[in-house]
Amino acid sequence: MYFMFLVVITTLIVMDYAAKRRRYNLTSNYCGPRIYPIFGTTEIFKSREVEDFLRTIGELSVKYGPMYRIWMGHELVVVVEDPAILKTLLSSPKYITKHSFYIVTANKFKRHLDGKEFDIYADVSLATLDIVCESTMGAKIGAQTSSDCGYVNAVEELTNIINKRGVNVWYWSDLIFGILAPKMKERQDHLIKILHSFTDNVIIKRRNALLRKQKPEDAPPLTEVDLDARKRAVLLDVLLQSAINGKPLTNADIREEVDTFIFGGHDTAATTVSFALYCLSRHPEVQSQAFQEICEVIGTDKNKPVTYKDLQNLKYLECIIKETLRLYPSGPVIGRQALEDSKIGEYSIPADTNIVVPIYFMLRNPSSFPDPDKFNPDRFLPPEVSTFLELGHFRFGKAFVNIFLQKH
């Protein structure tokens, strides 16, 4: 029995080395923590929550510099914080594929019994969901007026599950995840059904509205909803009327796109707006300056429509949004996957390498942003704005969740 155990372990180690040998050789000049057979970098396995994972990545970045490698089982991960290297990586078609290595953050404030503090994210999330659905899908869902919006609740709970899977390498495989955490897997599938049901409902409503627009002249008068639909050509209309190789898009194809816009659009915007309001509540002098700018550009008439030109002239408000994104990016880690072997400077990057960008730490780097933990929108006024522009091609979103929903 003992002999068989040794044979199995030895076989696994040999197979592990054979699978990794080429990538080992190509990345031999990388810094990084010690690698153990089969498991890889054991420091990562200590993480069970997003906070622990980010803390570990931060500690490794301090120890090994702006570019190093870690192994998560059989997966080679290159962590990059060097802006010059990242500019090449993120602008090259060799790395255009987004990897599923995304961690999603959500703004969670605790409601206190004294009533002085409340969870602003809940209200903002409902508002942004209404806005995104109406502006891109032409659908009025009434999320803010409904007593219970199952979609928003499902988004938050599914986000937590995805976070747990993202930092636990054993949960990456759907098969192993179902074996090790069957209840969580069952709950995940139920939440995905809720999200897909919501999306399907939006598609059906819009399809019916388009059909009513095509009624003959002797048809009954159009309703207010029909007239409103005629005024705007939204993204969903384009998808419903599109074709690939002469064939209309299937409902599954359309649902993938709708999932991307509804989930990613509303939750990312809600997170950013919530943190911006939080920062303004803690810095009344910034809030006062922003209010003064709004009064000067738009005026005090609440019934006056806000134009695109007005928004372009709200320069200080734009600085507030940028500073909010710097301190609280929607996704603290973004990722890419190398499509082919390549080389940047002295570093070789094998095909299928996972490239991880710990954007949260980059945007709090004191060498780029003096006093990095301070909320200071003025840092984005000329001439300091150049630093942000250098990093401006990063977009922090919910890409992992979008890919996740499409796969399921």
Q: Which helices and strands appear, and what pairs or packs with what?
A:
Layout: H1 2-26, H2 42-45, H3 50-64, E1 67-72, E2 75-80, H4 83-91, H5 120-137, H6 150-167, H7 174-180, H8 182-213, H9 224-231, H10 235-240, E3 243-244, E4 247-248, H11 251-282, H12 284-297, H13 308-312, H14 315-327, E5 334-337, E6 342-344, E7 347-349, E8 354-357, H15 359-362, H16 385-391, H17 399-407
Parallel strand pairs: 2-8
Antiparallel strand pairs: 1-2, 3-4, 5-8, 6-7
Our estimate of the beta-strand percent is 5-15%
* CATH top level assignment of the largest domain: Alpha Beta
Query: Are there runs of 5+ residues with pLDDT below 50, and where?
Result: 103-114, 216-231, 387-408
CATH architecture of the largest domain: 2-Layer Sandwich
Give the overall shape. globular
Count of DSSP E strands? Answer: 8
What string gives the helices and strands in order? Answer: HHHEEHHHHHHHEEHHHHEEEEHHH
How would you describe what is shown here?
- There is one protein chain.
- This protein has 408 residues and is α+β, with helices and mostly antiparallel strands.
- The protein folds into 2 domains: 162 residues, Uridine Diphospho-n-acetylenolpyruvylglucosamine Reductase, domain 2 (2-Layer Sandwich), CATH 3.30.43.20; 142 residues, no CATH class.
- The chain has 17 helices and 8 strands.
- A 4-stranded mixed beta sheet has the order 1-2-8-5. Strands 3-4 form a two-stranded antiparallel sheet. The chain has a two-stranded antiparallel sheet with strand order 6-7.
- The longest helix has 32 residues.
- The radius of gyration is 24 Å and the shape is globular.
- Its cofactor is heme.
